[in-house]
TrEMBL record:
Organism lineage string: Bacteria, Bacillati, Bacillota, Bacilli, Bacillales
InterPro entries: Knr4/Smi1-like_dom (IPR018958), Knr4/Smi1-like_sf (IPR037883)
Organism annotation: Saccharibacillus endophyticus
Protein name, per record: Knr4/Smi1-like domain-containing protein
Annotated Knr4/Smi1-like domain residues: 27-165
Pfam families per UniProt: SMI1_KNR4 (PF09346)
Amino acid sequence: MSQHTHFQGFDLTDFWDEYDGYTSAEEVTDERIAETERLLGYKLPLSYVELIRTKNGGSPVNVCFPMDEDEGYIAISAICGIGGEWGIDSDSLGSRHMIDNWGYPDIGIVFGECPSAGHDAIMFDYSQCGPQGEPRIIHVDVEVGEGEEPVRTFLASDFETFIRGLVHEDVYDTSEEDKQFDLEKARHAPFTPLLQQLCVSADSIFPQAEQTLRRLAESIIEEKGFFALHADLRSHLMYDLEFLLYVNAEGAVERDAYLAAYDKMLVFGPGGAFSTGGYAPGFVSDWLDERIKSGKIVEVTADRKLAFAKGYYQGILRQAAEYS
C-alpha cells in the first residue's frame, strides 16, 4: 500500500538528516507493519507508516517542536521506525522496554527519542482514542522525584500535525546573544571573593592581574563563542595564571589541596560573578599533571608541595603581558 494520503503539500524529500544511526535496514512492508501492531497491541497511525516508508527511522533535519512562547520547545533526536535495534518493536530499546524498565506510562507507544538518552521521549498516546484510534502526540518526562508520576505534555492532536510542526534548531539559536552576555560578564562582572583576594595579593608581582584575566577571558569567548576552559592553549594559560595567583597568596600547595580549591576561583561564585559556572575537573587535573611531568611545576618542600619552576614562572608573566 503505497498510496499517499497524508502530508499533502508537504515535501518529505529533505525531511531526514543523512545520519543513519537510528535507521533500520528492514523494509517497511504491510506484513511487517501488521506484525509490529500485533506485538505492541496498537494500530499505527497511517501518517507514521507513510513517513517511515520514506526511511525506516532516523533523525529529522528539523528537531524542535515549539511550545507556548514562555515554554520554549521540545527537542528530538530521532523518530524510530520498525525493526532493528532502534525500532519501536525492539526488545532492547523499543517501546515495551521503555515502558517496562524506564517508567513510561503504559498508554501507547514510545516512538521519539530525545537528547536526554532515555529520560524523556515522545509517545503515541492512545488513552483517549483506544488501541485502534488516532493517538495524540505527547512528550513524557520520567526524570521526576521518587514516587512521582511522569510528566505528560500534550504536543499535537495527531502525528502528521506533529511532523508539520517541527522547525529547525536555528530558530532557537541564541549563540550570538550568549556570546555577548559572556563578553559583558568578562568585562564588568565582579570576581569571586577568592579570585579578587588573590588578585589584590599579587599587586606587587602582577599589578594588572584583573585586567589580564578579563582580556584573556574575552579572547577565549571570541574564539569559542562562550566562556569555558578546556585543553586548548588559552585555557592552559588561564590555568597557569590561576595557579600563579594562588601560590603567590597561599604559598606552595599540595596537588589535591589545589584541585579542591580550584572551583572557588573561576568556576563557582555569587550570582552574576565572573565565572565559567561549571567545569570538567579532568581538564584541570590533566593540565596540572602535564605541568608536573614537564618540570614546569615542581615540588619545592619536603612534604611535596608544589610551585612553578622559576623559569616557567617568569615565562607565564611574559605571556600574560600580551593581554594586559
